[in-house]
Design goal:
This protein is of the alpha/beta class. The chain has a single domain, classed as Rossmann fold. The protein has six helices and 13 strands. The strands form three sheets. Strands 1, 4, 5, 6, 7, 8, 9, 10 and 11 form a nine-stranded mixed β-sheet that branches. Strand 12 and strand 13 form a beta hairpin. Helix 2 packs across helix 3.
Length: 213
């Protein structure tokens, strides 16, 4: 995969440790869900290093009055791609408990592997917010591209995308289609198989999150 200015691959030892457990087919549903949330929280620190709306506030310390930056109220919206993206929401809410949540429901056509929309519900005023689109798996990139495009059609300009596992095919597709969207991926895997699943991957994230395996 070629280098893209709008792609960050973490390759962090702590995240890699958690992903090793995440991949294991014997990892329980409870532990899988907890690991997805923990990895998401770790990713969010880096993802929100730049581009977060802030305001200066005056704070009275025990010693003196100082000026401090704070994240602007109601500045962030989380948009999980249903259904697996729901598993990442709590990992962001740990840091931003008041962040609103929109939902985009997409399923993948088994023949074309292209995304099909079945649900979309977004908070009012989302076009003025920093939007974090989340999905544990960035495989073909079709769902991610479609979700980002729908947000842009609604006027969103400040969009970031986070995935736990990515395939080169999907990362490249989203990076090329949306060069203005920064993509954050914990681990870049080898490739997709003939069914559009990431290898080595971790199976179907939705099934493992919600016990429908």
């Amino acid at each position: 995969m070629k280098d893209f200015n709008n792609v960050t691959i973490f390759n962090h030892p702590l995240i890699n440790h958690k992903i090793a457990i995440l991949r294991n087919e014997n990892t329980s549903m409870k532990e899988f869900r907890e690991l997805i949330e923990e990895i998401t929280t770790l990713m969010t620190f880096e993802c929100l290093r730049e581009g977060v709306p802030t305001v200066d506030v005056e704070v009275q310390t025990p010693l003196e009055l100082c000026t401090q930056q704070m994240v602007k109220d109601n500045a962030i919206v989380i948009v999980p791609i249903l259904r697996a993206g729901l598993g990442m929401v709590n990992g962001i809410h740990v840091l931003f408990p008041s962040a609103r949540v929109g939902h985009i429901g997409l399923y993948r056509d088994e023949e074309t592997l292209e995304p099909m929309e079945y649900y979309c519900k977004l908070p009012k005023g989302i076009e003025e917010k920093l939007v974090l689109v989340v999905d544990p798996m960035l495989a073909t990139g079709g769902s991610a591209c479609d979700a980002i495009e729908k947000l842009k059609q609604r006027g969103c300009k400040n969009i970031k995308f986070m995935a736990v596992i990515g395939a080169p095919e999907g990362v490249s597709r989203v990076a090329e289609a949306h060069p203005d969207v920064h993509i954050f991926v914990s681990t870049l895997d080898r490739c997709l198989n003939e069914h559009g699943y990431i290898l080595p991957g971790l199976g179907d994230a939705g099934d493992r999150l919600f016990g429908t395996k």
